[in-house]
Design goal:
This protein has about 400 residues and is of the alpha+beta class. The protein is globular, with a radius of gyration of 20 Å. It has ten helices and 18 strands. The strands form four sheets. Strands 6, 7, 8, 10, 14, 15, 17 and 18 form an eight-stranded mixed beta sheet that branches. Strands 1-2-3-4-12-11 form a six-stranded mixed beta sheet.
């Protein structure tokens, strides 16, 4: 056993990090979650830090209930990565053109495609299931129906904050493509709608934190949330798939002579709900800033824009509900990072990476994150490392 067990209210809190290193606000959030009447287990990842309602980096297993604020507003946010046939020797000395091509092809920040992009617009991308997926849009909560056009234009776009697209090298010099994004504005609007509904339900009135309001099984509110939640999770997955297809097309065009090929894409959510069974009990497992790490399952654990990332394989540790961390985890807030660091610091900490180095991304500086190597070391019983990657290009919104 490599976790530390801290007493909770209804269940113990299993922590894959030093409890003394976790800020007091995050510890209080963990105790609050452990007090929920529906809670069956709580696992805390090494990248844990304060969040809204529930900490980022926590795995919450409940029976017959789910907390929409614990999922977060970027429903289905996650990662995708793929190894290419390129090597470091194929890359030019100046990578600025490659970064520009990526930014011209995939809208970043609040950007969207002028016309919706479909799988048919991307080389070799399968089109199955897309028509059925969009046909289900009318079944979402009525408050987002007017957003249909925007949702269609935003699929295949990056977003901002900690979302990114990277070109990386592994320790053998092989080139990988990697990206991080979620369900864009449509996921946010669905989440905020349902969080508001949950907070108004009578059974949530006595909770210690209103952001822990839940939906319970066999109610119309739970049915409506599950419908919208699983659609948004699929939107996020398809968003990443479309972006990865567009990114691969950029690389094909930029390296025509190399005739680039790609391995199977690795993809994982890290803000989502899954129906899983443990000890003979059906549970709703919410991973807020955590990936599934079942036995043999591949996952991605990124660091910051100047450090590196890891491709991992799950070890199927049921003590952690088959989970692992979703990244390095922040060690200071965005506002604190902006006060502490300058663009000069950003330039120094991202030396050797072709990326933005302006005031707009100082809050994403590597110094604002925990050391990724330590985070990986703290979960050796959750995952094994398959590849260590270091970015050479990083696109941010």
């Amino acid at each position: 056993m490599s976790y530390t067990e801290v007493p909770g209210v209804r269940v113990p809190i299993r922590m894959w990090t030093d409890p003394a290193a976790v800020e007091s606000g995050a510890m209080q959030q963990l105790r609050n979650v452990s007090s929920l009447p529906w809670i069956k287990g709580l696992a805390v990842m090494p990248d844990v830090h304060y969040g809204k309602g529930a900490t980022v980096g926590s795995v919450i297993a409940m029976q017959g209930a789910v907390c929409p604020a614990a999922v977060g507003v970027d429903i289905g946010c996650g990662m995708s990565a793929v190894r290419t046939s390129l090597t470091a020797n194929d890359l030019p000395g100046d990578l600025s053109r490659l970064r520009t091509r990526i930014e011209q092809t995939i809208p970043v920040g609040r950007g969207l495609h002028s016309d919706p992009v479909s799988p048919g617009d991307v080389h070799g991308m399968p089109t199955s299931g897309w028509d059925d997926f969009w046909a289900r849009f009318d079944g979402l909560t009525e408050s987002v129906h007017w957003r249909a056009e925007r949702a269609a234009q935003q699929i295949g776009t990056l977003g901002s904050g900690n979302h990114f697209i990277e070109v990386c090298l592994d320790e053998s010099g092989e080139v990988w493509l990697m990206l991080h994004s979620g369900s864009r504005n449509i996921g946010k609007e669905l989440a905020e709608h349902h969080i508001g509904v949950a907070q108004g339900l009578p059974h949530n009135k006595g909770l210690v934190d209103r952001d822990l309001a839940v939906f319970v099984a066999d109610t119309p509110q739970m049915a409506a949330y599950r419908n919208d939640l699983f659609w948004a999770q699929e939107y996020a997955k398809r968003n990443r798939a479309l972006m990865m297809g567009l990114l691969q097309d950029v690389v094909r065009k930029e390296f025509k002579k190399a005739r680039v090929t790609f391995d199977q894409v690795i993809s994982c959510h890290h803000n989502y709900v899954a129906e899983e069974r443990y000890d003979g009990v059906d549970l709703l497992v919410t991973r807020k800033g955590a990936i599934r790490a079942g036995g043999g399952e591949y996952g991605i654990i990124p660091g910051s824009m100047g450090t590196g990332s890891y491709i991992v394989r799950g070890l199927g540790n049921t003590d952690a509900f088959n989970s692992a961390s979703h990244g390095a985890g922040r060690r200071m807030s965005r506002s604190a990072a902006k006060k502490r660091f300058s663009t000069r610091d950003l330039e120094e900490q991202t030396r050797g990476v072709e990326c933005r180095k302006d005031a707009g991304v100082v809050d994403e500086i590597p110094g604002a994150y925990k050391p990724i190597e330590k985070v990986i070391d703290q979960q050796r019983d959750l995952v094994e490392v398959v590849a260590k990657l270091k970015q050479v290009v990083c696109v941010k919104g």
